[in-house]
Amino acid sequence: MATVNLPFGRDKISVTIPDSRLNGILLSGAHSYHPDGGEEEIVRNAMENPIESPRLRALVKGKKNIVMIASDHTRPVPSRVIMPAVMAEIKEGNPEATLTILIATGFHRPTTREELIDKFGESIVERDDIRFLVHESQKDEDMVFIDTLPSGGRLLINRVAAEADLLISEGFIEPHFFAGFSGGRKSVLPGVSSGVTVMANHCSEFIDSQYARTGILEGNPIHKDMIYAAGKVNLAFIINVVLDENKKVIKAYAGHFDKAHREGCKFVDVLSGVDALPGDIVISTNGGYPLDQNIYQSVKGMTAAEATCKPGGVIIMAASCKDGHGGESLYDTFAGGADKNEIMKRFLSTPRDKTVPDQWESQILCRILLKYKVIMVTEAPREMVHEMQMDYADSVEKAISMADAYLGRSDGTITVIPDGVSVIVRNKE
């Protein structure tokens, strides 16, 4: 028997699987990577040796309106580790400078003060020379038109970012289920973009593209829009980190928003790439808190399972989802009981400029549900899970029993992905 620990909220749950059934465990190399130095040192070294860019201390000279885009409460970016190095560089180059931190919520709910303190630490949140603002994508009065995206969508950006003398960002790089990788340009679009812009970029045509997949940048139409947006708003400098399973920094990249980011993506691509191990049952997670706060985010971990589950198989998704569904439109799409084929047909016939909120997440979930049975092990209400056309289980063991019953056999192979958002699952040629 093999016992596997799975991140679940802020804790872990374990599942015991017979050796005869365990097909394999897919793990990112980040879980066993041994970094050179501590977290603060790694970040500081990256800041001192930026890629294709002057140091931040040089960029801030003479700048009065410095804005840093920072990730929101749904991302495990260790801002309390990053900020000391950022502020040291800023103060070295411009001792009188003040900094505005614009929280990149994208299409998410606003980040609370408590969540800011949890992320940055009270000492940063309380500083007199730092001002915090939270982006709200639905506030049209906060947006300014910049240009037209390659997709044809209107690029509307938060005025605070657009009017900065110097725009920088922090973030982290991990595989992303339709943007290829997180981090870099993504802090601008969708991070601080209008909901109108986000919906144009996340249209059904792009989500359906074979290139809008985990680990792919070249040919990815969503990435193309994002790069264009970051360039147009003059994102001047980034500091992005790579994290291990404990959300600790193991690598950092600073400098040019695209070139530094691409270097980080190359590292993550090698570190996170795993060969698919097709299983009748695939167990996945969203890597625990903060990415498994709701069902909306948990679709990401399901896509890793999708990439290695046998046709007609079962995906077991273990995610806390204490915040419930996380997207009213996502919930409504499935709770109406509509046939999934009709739902997908409706999505694919929706023009780019008619995309509705959360359509992209609904489209990907629908794609998965059309191919696989999905059982959620979660703290979200049982009724909510059922209404969203998935099955509910109160333990992974129970979910396996349910999967066996569905498949009509008790010897199906089981593949486990302890952190579904940290891997790039590739099918062997």
Tally of helical runs: 16
Count of separate structural domains: 2
CATH architecture descriptor text of the largest domain: 3-Layer(aba) Sandwich
Please identify which CATH superfamily of the largest domain we are dealing with: LarA, N-terminal domain
Report the end-to-end length measured between terminal Cα atoms.
31 Å
Q: CATH class of the largest domain, anyone?
A: Alpha Beta
Write down the overall mean pLDDT: 96
Enumerate the strands of the largest sheet in spatial order, edge to edge or round the barrel.
3-19-15-16-17-18
Rough shape? Answer: globular
Assembly status = single chain
The CATH topology of the largest domain, please?
Rossmann fold
Helix content: 25-40%
- Main pleated sheet: 6 strands, parallel
Structural class: alpha/beta
Descriptive account of the structure:
By secondary structure, the protein is an alpha/beta fold. It folds into 2 domains: 175 residues, LarA, C-terminal domain (2-enoyl-CoA Hydratase, Chain A, domain 1); 233 residues, Rossmann fold (3-Layer(aba) Sandwich). It has 16 helices and 20 strands. A hairpin with a 2-residue loop joins strand 1 and strand 2. Helix 11 crosses helix 14 and helix 13 crosses helix 14. It is globular. The two termini are 31 Å apart. The model has no long low-confidence stretch (mean pLDDT 96). This is Nickel-dependent lactate racemase. It comes from Lacrimispora xylanolytica.
